[in-house]
Amino acid sequence: MSDATPRTGVPLAPRTTLRLGGKARYFWSVSSADEAVEALRWARANRQRVQVLGGGSNTIFPDEGFPGLVVHVAVPGLRFRDAGGKVVVDAGAGESWDDLVRGSVDRGLTGIECLSGIPGTVGAAPIQNVGAYGQELSETLVHVECLDRETLERERIPAAECGFGYRWSRFKGEDRGRFLILGIRLRLESGSRPDLRYDQLEGEVERRGGIGDLSPAEAVRRVREAVLDLRESKSMVVREEDPDSRSAGSFFLNPVLSEEEYRELERRWDSAGGREAIPSYPADGGRKVPAAWLVEKAGFEKGHRHGGVGLSTKHALALVNRDGSTRALLELADDIREAVAGRFGVRLEREPVLAEPDGADDGRPRHGVSDSEPSEETQT
Ligand SMILES: Cc1cc2nc3c(=O)[nH]c(=O)nc-3n(C[C@H](O)[C@H](O)[C@H](O)COP(=O)(O)OP(=O)(O)OC[C@H]3O[C@@H](n4cnc5c(N)ncnc54)[C@H](O)[C@@H]3O)c2cc1C
Description:
The protein is α+β, with helices and mostly antiparallel strands and about 375 residues long. It has seven helices and 20 strands.
């Protein structure tokens, strides 16, 4: 439901999957472009900083809350249209991402089935180019409908101009905070077989009898079920009753190392007596190493606890809130980063967004390892 005016003192913790953070001084839920313009005008007139919020599954609010206006984007709409053998989907930013995936899979459409179960809204999906099991939003996105927060003009940005990369886009980079996303358009395949590119998913699909004998529509449904089960087994589907899903998903990005950085990692691993091979795969001109492996080998086991927060018992990359605070969560994140940097010379970058009042979040540590003092040990 949208608000006609901003509300005051709205608790933010229930609006995030981490269940952390204080109150928003002002909070405004908007259901249309006009309402978004109204909220942004109000913030300008009242000299309030703005934090845009969707489902809160990739946002960390400080314990002190947010001392400005939180604009919650609730723009509705989900429309599927045949377009020359393909299907075009227009979705409002406030729709649930997984409702969009389910609706597509139910129609037998392929292209986003591996992105099943990712929490959050449609509008946030382009921000970090959501991805899972070898598939990314950028593969099917046609364009993003935006509102320029400065000019308050509407703009349509084609996918090719979104600057997409691994968990990256211009909306996280040079245009961070510039646009409010109102909706997206996707182009999905109809009657095509799903493409399985990830061993673990292929294994899970095989375990269910494979997809070779199925029609394309049945096959895409089987893939969705397999993805959801895999995600459930790692608490990567948000469930109230599952304390390990009280997270922001993966807390760190998988680092992509240059050949030199990778050799340094190998050297350190060997000299520490490491026996198993370092898991890695080629990506983006370097080698991607699972951050979860680095976290565990740096001494942070699944289930590790630190003052009311900790690591999920199922996934070393999910920092979870048991009954803690944002402060404790960021401390733990910094401890992990320092340990990984000290042990392996690899710097981990945070994936979720820290909604800082000064808007200065760059995904880097606030405590501990200092960006201004790079050392051989902390370079990546
Ligand atoms: C259990 C769990 C599993 C997850 N698994 C995955 C995964 O497999 N792959 C993956 O990529 N991500 C994953 N995530 C992260 C998260 O779900 C995605 O990043 C999702 O797209 C965030 O959506 P949201 O609406 O909750 O965003 P929010 O947390 O509300 O916002 C995230 C960022 O997007 C901005 N934003 C939100 N909506 C808009 C808008 N309409 N216009 C402009 N800016 C906006 C916010 O300002 C903020 O900077 C997971 C998270 C959890 C909790």
